[in-house]
Design brief:
Elements: E1 9-11, E2 14-16, E3 22-26, E4 33-38, H1 42-60, H2 64-80, H3 82-93, H4 97-117, E5 124-126, E6 132-140, E7 144-147, H5 155-167, E8 171-174, H6 180-193, E9 200-202, H7 207-215, E10 222-226, H8 229-241, E11 245-249, E12 254-258, H9 264-276, E13 286-292, H10 296-308, H11 329-343, E14 347-350, E15 365-368, E16 385-391, H12 394-401, E17 406-407, E18 409-413, H13 417-426, E19 431-434, E20 449-450, E21 453-454, H14 459-464, E22 467-475
Length: 476
């Protein structure tokens, strides 16, 4: 695998690597700075905005056939480069390299689906009497500003640029400054495949300064963001000033409902792996395990056994199953929440400690019988912590699953068909997996409800979110 790439801004097709202030990129496995990322100036952002306006006019005029071909070519380039991109993601974010390569391949799969959507942009003709005609057209919304989180450096960026470009929009994306290489690789693949440099750009800087500058411009017609609920609310307020449309994919606190009639072994194998994927730094991570009392002890003990068996280490090592957390904030936050849970009466059954004195490693952790007033029961831990609580039955489990203002992903395990139908209807979330762990697919919409955001990515909805409808009435 190649070395970590040189970092840059990508503005108007120009690669800018020097002459700017820089910010350090840290290796989560060591905590040491290993790369320098240039920050865009105000003049850079104005230049990018001007290019985005011109790039929109150029890209929207490109035929659907040509846009599809270019996006498919970009997907092919991402597949060819997957090992190198995956290695870069592991270096900057920490996840096991197999997971990082898998993330990269998923980006290619998503882009291939989006490419097909270039020609599936169907309007409709309305019924009218002779001498009249009415049609509904779907047109690209305009230049889009996208802001991405650090936990999936490539995929979060692909979700910002793929749907936008398929719709015919131009896009300026700001990947996370903590994990820039994965996102840059996605943008570079687009440019190498033939997307005009003005239509797909990448900038970095102080996040609040970048967002205020871009969203303060009337050139930007839509904002899209993946990240915390607090930052999402802030960006939504900024977008409201110019009435920019918004897609917000925000925090969650995934409930897992395990009923007495579930396949417990399958549930354990699936959900333990899901919980500690990417060190729990996943917006759809299962976190609150609500287990019916009759199988509580069996599930609890089985989960603890699996958590203790996980191999934690450098993401570059083949035997590693869970890498470090992505930054110092991660272990510090987990330590505080675990301490609070124990102070309030929760039981620590596995983990609970940092690992070593280098990097940002933390043990896979299991808490049980945590009271509802503990901080971790109400705020997303975003780390390798599972909470397992006994529940008296269906109604109490539904009530607890829906208690929080978050509603991104939920999970349930039961072999009862009637119960599965009720769960699909009664759980308040944008996505639910029943007897499985997957809530994301390239052809399915991805997004939440309540404080987990609004708007959708992926699937046909991910392209539709980058379009506006126009009704044309004609008399002749």
């Amino acid at each position: 695998m190649s070395d970590y790439p040189q970092l840059s801004l990508l503005i108007g097709g120009e690669t800018i690597t020097s002459g700017r202030e820089t910010v350090d990129v840290l290796d989560p496995a060591s905590g040491e700075a290993f790369a320098a990322l240039p920050r865009a100036t105000s003049a850079d952002l104005d230049t990018a905005l001007g290019h985005a306006e011109a790039g929109f006019a150029k890209w929207r005029a490109t035929s659907a056939d040509e846009r599809e071909a270019i996006l498919r070519k970009a997907a092919g380039l991402i597949r060819e480069r997957a090992k190198d991109i995956g290695a870069a993601i592991t270096r900057e974010q920490g996840k096991p390299v197999k997971e990082a390569i898998g993330e990269t391949i998923y980006c290619a799969m998503l882009l291939e689906f989006y490419a097909g959507e270039c020609k599936r942009n169907y309007g409709r003709t309305l019924v009218r009497p002779d001498g009249q005609r009415a049609e509904v057209r779907h047109e690209p919304v305009g230049p889009i500003a996208g802001f991405s989180a650090w936990n999936f450096p490539a995929l979060n960026v692909m979700r910002k640029i793929g749907g936008a470009l398929a719709a015919g929009c131009s896009v300026i994306v700001k990947p996370s400054e903590e994990t820039p290489a994965g996102g840059l690789a996605m943008v570079q693949a687009m440019l190498d495949a033939g997307v005009p440099g003005e239509a797909c750009q990448a900038v970095f800087g102080v996040p609040d300064e970048i967002s205020r500058h871009l969203l303060g411009s009337p050139i930007i017609r839509k904002m899209t963001f993946t990240g915390s609920t607090a930052v999402g609310k802030h960006l939504a307020a900024l977008a409201a000033e110019n009435l920019q449309r918004a897609t917000l994919e925000l925090g969650g606190h995934g409930p897992v409902l395990v009923f007495e009639d579930a396949d417990i072994d399958k549930a354990l194998d699936t959900m333990a792996a899901n919980k500690f994927r990417n060190a729990g730094q996943v917006c759809v991570s299962p976190t609150r395990f609500l287990v019916e009392e009759g199988v509580f002890e069996r599930f609890r003990d089985g989960f603890v056994e699996r958590a203790k068996a996980i191999t934690v280490g450098n993401g570059m090592d083949k035997e590693t199953q869970m890498g470090p957390m992505a930054s110092e904030r991660g272990p510090d936050g987990i330590q505080a929440k675990v301490a609070d849970a124990r102070d309030k009466g929760g039981r620590l059954l596995a983990g609970g400690e940092r690992i070593g004195n280098q990097g940002f490693f933390h043990q896979p952790t299991v808490l049980a019988e945590v009271p509802i007033d503990a901080e971790i029961m109400n705020e997303e831990p975003f780390g390798p912590v599972a909470i397992i609580n006994p529940m008296p039955g269906y109604d109490a489990m539904i009530k607890e699953a829906n208690r929080l203002p978050y509603g991104l992903a939920a999970y349930a395990w039961t072999q009862n068909a009637g119960k599965r139908a009720r769960l699909a209807s009664e759980i308040e979330s944008g996505m639910i997996a029943i007897n499985g762990g997957g809530v994301s697919a390239v052809d399915a919409p991805f997004g939440g409800v309540k404080w987990s955001g609004y708007g959708l990515e992926d699937g046909a909805e991910g392209v539709a979110a980058c379009m506006v409808s126009k009704t044309v009435h004609e008399t002749f």
